[in-house]
Specification:
single chain, about 325 residues, alpha/beta, Quinone Oxidoreductase, Chain A, domain 1, seven-stranded mixed beta sheet, globular
C-alpha cells in the first residue's frame, strides 16, 4: 500500500511517501468501511500533527489526513449507521481521525457522505473537514440566526483559509452576512467575490474599528476565531450585545486577556471546540445535517469548492510547505492515482 508517513516530528520534509508491500490494508470493524482513496484534503491539523503538537486520538491511524474522497470497497454496510444507503462502489467523501494520506483508509460509516452530484474527487475531498467544522461551530455552537434571531452577521478570522471560504459561502447561502479578516488585498478581493460583505486587511487596518464602522457601532453577532491569543480580547469589542465568540484554534497563542466587565454587561458568550476527538455519534449527527441542509446548496451550485492547488500524494511535503506559507486561498488537496 502507498502512504505518506511522518518519519519523525519536524519540518515538511519529514513526510515520507512509502510503497510498502508489507503494509497491510486496514481492516474495517463494526460500523466502518474501507475506502479506496482518490483524493485527500490537507488541513492545518495535519501540519500540527507532523510537528508533534496534535496527538492522534486513541484508536486513530498514525498516518496523517483527516478527510478524503473515494469509493467504498467493503465494510459493515448493514450497520444502522448507513444513513445514506451506501454500498460497495459508492463514491463518498468522509471525515476520518487519520490515515487519509494513503491508498486505502478506514472511515466510520456515519461520517461518510455521498459525493454531491457534479463534483470531482478532488473537489469532494476538500469538503468534510471544513464543512463539519463550520456547521458545528457557527450554527450548532454559535447559534447563528437561530433561536428566533433572524438575519445576523458573522466575523471570520482567516477568511481565505479553507474554513474561511467555506464559512463565507455557507453562511451567505443561509441568508446571513459575513465579514472576514485577511492578510492581503488579493485575499480580500477573493473573499468579496465569494460573498463577504467586508474584507479587512488586518496588516493595514484595525479590524475592531473597521467592524464598528461598518456595522454603525452595533457589532457582529458571532465570531469564528482560529487565531486566539490577543485576538480574543479584541473580539469582545467587535460583538453586538448577546454576541458569541467561537474559538476553533489558537494559531496566535493559547493565552488571552479579556475585559470580563464587557462579558457581564453585554451578556457575551465565549466558547470553543475541537472536532477530531469527538464521538462518531456526534460527527454522524453533523453529517446528517450537512446532507439535509448543505448538500442541496452544493448541488445547486450556490456553494462551490475552492481548490487552490492539487499535489500528487508523493508531494505531500510541498503541500505542507504551501499550507505553512499561508499563501493559499481555499483548499489544498492531494491526489492518489
Amino acid at each position: 500500500m502507498r502512504a505518506v508517513e511522518i518519519s519523525q516530528y519536524g519540518a515538511p520534509e519529514v513526510l515520507k511517501a512509502v510503497v510498502r508491500p508489507d503494509l497491510a490494508l486496514p481492516q474495517p470493524g463494526s460500523g466502518e468501511v474501507l475506502i479506496r482513496v482518490r483524493a485527500a484534503g490537507v488541513n492545518r491539523p495535519d501540519v500540527l500533527q507532523r510537528q508533534g503538537f496534535y496527538p492522534v486520538p486513541p484508536g486513530g491511524s498514525d498516518l496523517p489526513g483527516l478527510e478524503l474522497a473515494g469509493e467504498i470497497i467493503g465494510g459493515d454496510l448493514a450497520h444502522p449507521d448507513n444513513f445514506f444507503s451506501l454500498e460497495v462502489g459508492s463514491r463518498v467523501c468522509a471525515l476520518v481521525v487519520g490515515g487519509a494520506y494513503a491508498e486505502y483508509c478506514i472511515a466510520p460509516l456515519a461520517q461518510c457522505l455521498p459525493v454531491p452530484r457534479g463534483l470531482s474527487d478532488v473537489e469532494a475531498a476538500g469538503l468534510p473537514e471544513t464543512f463539519f467544522t463550520v456547521w458545528s461551530n457557527v450554527f450548532d455552537r454559535g447559534r447563528l440566526g437561530l433561536d428566533g434571531r433572524g438575519k445576523e452577521t458573522l466575523l471570520v478570522h482567516g477568511g481565505s483559509s479553507g474554513i474561511g471560504v467555506t464559512a463565507i459561502q455557507l453562511v451567505t447561502a443561509m441568508g446571513h452576512d459575513v465579514i472576514v479578516t485577511v492578510g492581503s488585498q488579493e485575499k480580500a478581493e477573493a473573499c468579496k467575490q465569494l460573498g463577504a460583505v467586508l474584507a479587512i486587511n488586518y496588516k493595514t487596518a484595525d479590524f475592531v474599528e473597521e467592524v464598528k464602522s461598518f456595522t454603525s457601532g452595533k457589532g457582529v453577532n458571532v465570531i469564528l476565531d482560529m487565531v486566539g491569543g490577543s485576538y480574543v480580547g479584541r473580539d469582545i469589542h467587535c460583538l453586538a450585545d448577546d454576541g458569541r465568540i467561537v474559538i476553533i484554534a489558537h494559531q496566535g497563542g493559547k493565552i488571552s486577556e479579556i475585559d470580563v466587565g464587557h462579558v457581564l454587561r453585554r451578556r457575551l458568550t465565549i466558547t470553543g471546540s475541537t472536532l477530531r476527538a469527538r464521538s462518531v455519534e456526534f460527527k454522524g449527527a453533523i453529517a446528517r445535517s450537512l446532507r439535509a441542509y448543505v448538500w442541496p446548496l452544493i448541488e445547486a451550485k450556490k456553494i462551490k469548492p475552492v481548490i487552490h492547488e492539487v499535489f500528487e500524494l508523493e508531494a505531500a511535503a510541498r503541500a505542507h510547505e504551501l499550507m505553512e506559507s499561508s499563501q493559499h486561498i481555499g483548499k489544498i488537496v492531494l491526489t492518489v492515482n
